[in-house]
UniProtKB/TrEMBL annotation, chain A:
<dbReference type="Pfam" id="PF02347">
    <property type="entry name" value="GDC-P"/>
</dbReference>
<keyword id="KW-0560">Oxidoreductase</keyword>
<dbReference type="InterPro" id="IPR049315">
    <property type="entry name" value="GDC-P_N"/>
</dbReference>
<dbReference type="GO" id="GO:0009116">
    <property type="term" value="P:nucleoside metabolic process"/>
</dbReference>
<dbReference type="InterPro" id="IPR023010">
    <property type="entry name" value="GcvPA"/>
</dbReference>
<dbReference type="InterPro" id="IPR015424">
    <property type="entry name" value="PyrdxlP-dep_Trfase"/>
</dbReference>
<dbReference type="GO" id="GO:0004375">
    <property type="term" value="F:glycine dehydrogenase (decarboxylating) activity"/>
</dbReference>
<protein>
    <submittedName>
        <fullName>Aminomethyl-transferring glycine dehydrogenase subunit GcvPA</fullName>
        <ecNumber>1.4.4.2</ecNumber>
    </submittedName>
</protein>
<feature type="domain" description="Glycine cleavage system P-protein N-terminal">
    <location>
        <begin position="19"/>
        <end position="457"/>
    </location>
</feature>
UniProtKB/TrEMBL annotation, chain B:
<feature type="domain" description="Glycine dehydrogenase C-terminal">
    <location>
        <begin position="375"/>
        <end position="479"/>
    </location>
</feature>
<dbReference type="GO" id="GO:0016594">
    <property type="term" value="F:glycine binding"/>
</dbReference>
<keyword id="KW-0663">Pyridoxal phosphate</keyword>
<dbReference type="Pfam" id="PF21478">
    <property type="entry name" value="GcvP2_C"/>
</dbReference>
<dbReference type="InterPro" id="IPR015424">
    <property type="entry name" value="PyrdxlP-dep_Trfase"/>
</dbReference>
<dbReference type="GO" id="GO:0005829">
    <property type="term" value="C:cytosol"/>
</dbReference>
<feature type="domain" description="Aminotransferase class V">
    <location>
        <begin position="176"/>
        <end position="298"/>
    </location>
</feature>
<dbReference type="InterPro" id="IPR020581">
    <property type="entry name" value="GDC_P"/>
</dbReference>
<protein>
    <recommendedName>
        <fullName>glycine dehydrogenase (aminomethyl-transferring)</fullName>
        <ecNumber>1.4.4.2</ecNumber>
    </recommendedName>
</protein>
């Protein structure tokens, strides 16, 4: 028996009921929905239905998407040692619970009255990161670390009226592409050399390159190559002597054990929040923060929203709202500072939850665990014949292993590791040719001892196969 | 028992009010929110404490002054704050015009929460990420069909970042032709989003703003006078935030093209246009869609999001990279690195993959006919709302009298003149009925503005509820204006004293700054 035709009624579109549409059209005083489009000239109207795949029911959609995603092999299936700007970290369940709350997930740009909770949660995020970096002002987060750096550099340029910036040569070249696009054409940049034995910035080269048109000196600590820069104060002093702003990029998860850059001369601190509770999500977990001292000249240069606390007409009640809103492009269009809009607010709230859960001791202990595990990995890898741990500096979370002596390219090694079910680190050979055939490996608290040993054994096998060939 | 009578016309609402302390006030020394993972004993035996290698100059001497709070207390605190937030799931969310606050399908939210996506590293080998690359590729194909353009990038992570990307492409294009210096102006319109002008300035452009004519259309005569051999580009939304569609848009793009400029299209207001009209036929070289608006990804308190950026074949080489392509006959997807003309990158890695998947899923759940239904019902809903609001005493909608598309910028000018009640007062009063309401970006070209966009997601009864709240407020303004001026009274908080927010000596952007700036005298403390 033929099934009766089901009415065309999409679950997401309630006003598809013909009688309701008729009633609404009558109220408006037109015959048909087409009449409402009369203003669009015929020559602009699409004459045919779009050529898109047929609609799927919810059940069919789930089946379809499941099938697509089943072709992914995540880092839960393949042991991975990739970091390089997006890192695997332990995420407390409470972080997920909060950022999946539908109140937060579906809120947007409400006022401090109906969205009091959103304002408070973001004010708290600002306040918690402020403790981590030991600064008094933190923004509602921006897109990612690269954007935070770019904006920090533009802030410095506006404050100093200068147009050149100096960047540590260890910078991630992908991040550099983003910065270069964002600061051009108003600013130009130059890279400062680093010692290829230690990863440290070369202070002499910095002195040679800094001029009275240098707006900012930017370096990261730990650097993109994982090394801890011991001479932060010296770099900041050189910047300040030349009248430049010292901008330091930082991985916030290191700050339980590493000194916050504000304590060695940084004027602006920036970094990525992804380590603080965000899943990697194929790079969708990035979020950038900027922090400064509470001085008008800094605060007025932020393009971002800054949420502040204030009293209400009721005694004992906290209220929140936008600080110095008139500096933003929302208020002042092209005269505002850069631009503001949708960025990564929910990741800010999540980072706040993360810091509230970890607390001061948790951050300290976690930093220690990461250092121990990554040192253990470097130690095992350094024992493999043909492999050397390239930069002889203390490092945090990431380190550089040099395979040049094996005669193999990193590409070849990664391929052989894949055959053993391991995703190795990031190939540095094209971005940092001065480091030879090197790989940037990331080891965090999520890597179990056996994961690290698995990597070392696999690399041992890969290298011994060729080293035997070399030695015979 | 007796029948419970429910006759009130507006909702008898009260927002959650937990009177929650600021999180630092929950500090209890010794409590723990979560255990930090520890290294295995063999590792400790092999490397020691791990931290003594840190040079003294870089050792943290004092732990960060974060609060110490037990896990349940942290959870409870943030759950309470979430309840004090009016997500679009909870209200007739038509008050945030220009933002397209539509229904967020739960199935999409569920599908992104898989380790197959959450635990994917962006630099993993291509063979391990074929599923998500295919999603990018399929969404690209769908977007090409929806816009008529030839290639999409999903790297920009908001409309603003897409606008910045487009301004960057404009610059790179003219530089590639040796006209980078000469073409230093970008033309925009007054009713376009402020980010259009703001991002073009970041890319070094002078801004020329075309004002509306008497009917609210961007003034074509002004455009004709504005273009020259200095014109680099023209950026506009259509319809603009007034909901007025500019039928002469093709003439606009022709004028700009004749002067050698690039036309780029802010499609933040595309919800009424799906399957109706496209960027291509209107003569645009580039466009972007907010996947968190038109394509039903949630707004996440303000991101992360996606500004899906489409370009013509001629501009494809300028896109940020990599883009996803399909190789040969076999079902293999690749990340294709761009060539020398590319502007490089605008965001790390590949943008926000979760949002890309959500948008793809949404399109698949509707199909071509469903997308057309979305547009048509969004426009029907808007015109119904428009018709009803024009009947409310004190309300009006400046400019052309005909129908609008998916949203309208209204005005309370008459009500303000009659009663002294402003649009900001209405914002606060709407909270008392559990509803959002948004005025406009600045400057207020429409006096006492408010901007409503009902989308396709709401039923006639939902719209009637919103209208009824506005009717009620208009009545109050004319009869008991203090009720509106003193609002909210049924929200989480009462009127905020915002006088400190513009005073550097008093503003408090963090808790520690607040403690310093409001230190009590010793005796009181």
């Amino acid at each position: 028996m033929a099934q009766p035709k089901r009415a065309a009624m999409h679950p997401y579109i309630p006003n598809m009921i013909p009688e309701v549409q008729r009633q609404m059209l009558n109220e408006i005083g037109v015959e048909s929905i087409e009449d409402l489009y009369r203003i669009i000239p015929d020559e602009l109207k699409l004459k045919e239905q779009m050529d898109l795949p047929p609609a799927l029911s919810e059940l069919e959609l789930r089946r379809h998407v499941d099938r697509l995603l089943s072709r992914n092999h995540s880092t839960q299936e393949v042991v991975s040692f990739l970091g390089a700007g997006c890192w695997p970290h332990f995420i407390p369940a409470v972080c997920d619970e909060i950022n999946q709350r539908s109140e937060f997930a579906t809120a947007y740009a409400g006022e401090p009255y109906e969205d009091h909770g959103r304002f408070q949660a973001l004010f708290e995020y600002q306040s918690l990161v402020a403790e981590l970096v030991d600064m008094d002002v933190v923004n509602v987060p921006t897109f990612d670390w690269a954007q935070a750096t770019s904006t920090s550099l533009r802030m410095a340029a506006r404050m100093t009226g200068r147009s050149k910036v100096l960047l540590a040569g260890t910078i991630d070249k992908d991040k550099l592409k983003i910065i270069a696009n964002y600061i051009t054409p108003d600013l130009t940049f130059e890279l400062v050399d680093f010692h290829t034995e230690t990863g440290e910035l070369d202070p002499q080269d910095l002195r040679n390159k800094i001029t009275d048109d240098t707006a900012a000196v930017y370096f990261e600590n730990p650097s993109f190559l994982g090394t801890i820069e011991p001479c932060g104060q010296q770099i900041a002093d050189i910047a300040h002597e030349a009248g430049a702003v010292c901008v330091v990029g930082v991985d916030p998860i290191s700050l339980g054990v590493l000194k916050p850059p504000s304590q060695y001369g940084a004027d602006i601190i920036c970094g990525d929040l992804q380590p603080l509770g965000m899943h990697m999500n194929y790079g969708g977990g990035q979020a950038g923060f900027i922090a400064t001292r509470d001085e008008e000249k800094y605060v007025m240069e932020y393009p971002s929203r800054l949420f502040g606390i204030a009293p209400t007409i009721v005694e004992g009640e906290y209220g929140f709202g936008d600080v110095a809103y008139e500096r933003t492009s929302f208020h002042d269009r092209e005269k505002g500072k850069e631009s503001v809009g949708t960025q990564t607010a929910l990741w800010g709230i999540t980072a706040g939850v993360y810091l509230a859960l970890l607390g001061p001791h948790g951050m300290q202990e976690l930093g220690q665990t990461i250092m121990q595990k990554s040192q253990y990995a470097a130690k095992l890898l350094g024992q493999i014949e043909g492999v050397s741990i390239r930069l002889q500096s203390p490092f945090f979370k990431e380190f550089v292993a040099d395979f040049t002596e094996t005669g193999l390219t990193v590409e070849e090694i990664l391929k052989q590791l894949r055959a053993e079910g391991i995703q190795g680190g990031r190939d540095l050979s094209s971005d940092f040719p001065e480091l030879g055939q090197s790989m940037l490996l990331c080891v965090t608290e999520v890597h179990a001892q056996e994961d690290i040993e698995l990597l070392a054994e696999a690399l041992g096998r890969v290298c011994s196969r060729v080293m035997k060939g070399v030695n015979s | 028992m007796k029948r419970i009578i429910r006759e009130q016309k507006v909702r008898n609402f009260h927002q959650a009010k937990w009177d929650e302390p600021v999180i630092f006030e929950l500090h209890k020394p010794g409590e723990r929110g979560v255990e930090a993972p520890q290294a295995e004993s063999a590792i400790v035996a092999a490397v020691g404490d791990g931290v003594s290698v840190i040079p003294d100059s870089m050792k943290r001497t004092e732990p960060p002054a974060l609060p110490e709070i037990g896990q349940a207390k942290v959870l409870r605190h943030y759950l309470r704050l979430s309840q004090e937030t009016m997500g679009s799931d909870f209200n007739v969310e038509i008050g945030q015009g220009t933002c397209t606050m539509k229904y967020i399908p739960r199935v999409n939210e569920m599908m992104i929460r898989t380790t197959k996506l959450m635990e994917l590293h962006p630099l993993q080998h291509e063979d391990d990420v074929q599923g998500i690359l295919e999603v990018y590729y399929r969404l690209d194909l769908a977007m090409r069909e929806i816009s008529g353009l030839d290639r999409f990038s999903f790297q920009p992570s908001s409309g603003t970042q897409a606008l910045l990307t487009m301004a960057s492409i404009v610059r790179a294009y003219h530089e590639s032709r040796g006209e980078g210096e000469q073409r230093n102006e970008i033309i925009t319109t007054m009713f376009s989003h402020p980010s259009q002008a703001a991002t073009a300035v970041v890319k070094g452009y002078k801004i020329i703003t075309v004002m509306p004519d008497a009917d609210g259309f961007p003034d074509i005569e002004q455009l004709k006078r504005a273009v020259s051999d200095r014109t680099a580009g023209f950026v506009v939304a259509n319809p603009e935030d007034t909901g007025i569609f500019n039928p002469r848009i093709r003439e606009f793009t022709d004028i700009v093209h004749a002067a050698g400029g690039i036309c780029y299209y802010d499609q933040a207001n595309a919800n009424g246009l799906l399957g109706i009209t496209r960027a291509k036929e209107a003569g645009f070289d580039m466009c972007f869609f907010n996947l968190h608006k038109t394509f039903a990804a949630p707004h996440m308190c303000g991101g992360p999001a996606t500004g899906a950026l489409g370009v013509t074949e001629a501009l494809a080489p300028f896109l940020p990279g990599p883009v996803v392509s399909r190789s040969g006959e076999r079902e293999h997807y690749e990340l294709q690195e761009p060539g020398d003309l590319s502007i490089g990158k605008v965001r790390s890695f590949h943008g926000v993959a979760q949002t890309v998947l959500r948008a793809y899923a949404w399109i698949r759940s509707l199909g071509a006919e469903g997308l057309l239904n979305v547009a048509q019902v969004a426009v029907l809903n808007n015109n119904y709302l428009y018709h009803k609001i024009l009947q409310i005493p004190g309300a009006s909608a400046p400019y052309i009298k005909g129908n609008r598309l998916e949203q309208v910028r209204y005005s309370w000018q008459k009500m303000t003149e009659d009663t002294g009640v402003t649009t900001e007062d209405v914002t606060r009063r709407m909270c008392d009925f559990g509803l959002h309401y948004w005025t406009s970006h600045h400057p207020y070209v429409v006096p006492q503005p408010f901007t409503l966009e009902p989308t396709e997601s709401y039923s006639k009864e939902d719209l009637d509820e919103y209208i009824q709240a506005l009717v009620q407020i208009s009545k109050e303004a004319y009869n008991e204006p203090e009720t509106v001026k003193n609002a909210p009274t049924r929200s989480t908080v009462h009127r905020i004293n915002d006088s400190s927010f513009d005073d550097p000596a008093k503003w408090c952007i963090t808790w520690r700054a607040y403690l310093k700036k409001t230190a009590l005298p010793q005796a009181e403390a």
